[in-house]
Write a structure and sequence with these properties.
two-stranded antiparallel ribbon, mainly beta, 0% helix, five-stranded antiparallel β-sheet, Thrombin, subunit H
Length: 79
């Protein structure tokens, strides 16, 4: 059974790409759908970067006004 797992809380939106940037709280894979607290799809994991021991996640938003998700926890389905 798939579980909703918190992957992090975006700290900002990249000025150059428009991606939501957050420190990873759980392992994830590029291309995985990203959900809000209500389980609605808001984008997908576009990139994983930084040190392996403490990676960052870039989420490419697929919704209007992605800035509303800054400082809000985001999730993936895992399992």
């Amino acid at each position: 059974m798939r579980r909703k797992i918190r992957i992090g809380v975006p700290s900002h939106i990249s000025r150059s790409s428009g991606n939501l940037i957050m420190k990873a709280e759980h392992k994830a894979r590029i291309g995985m759908p990203v959900l809000d607290r209500e389980g609605r799809r808001i984008g997908f994991i576009y990139d994983l970067f930084g040190p392996v021991s403490s990676p960052y996640i870039a989420v490419r938003p697929t919704v209007e006004n992605p800035e509303r998700y800054v400082d809000e926890p985001l999730y993936i389905l895992w399992g």
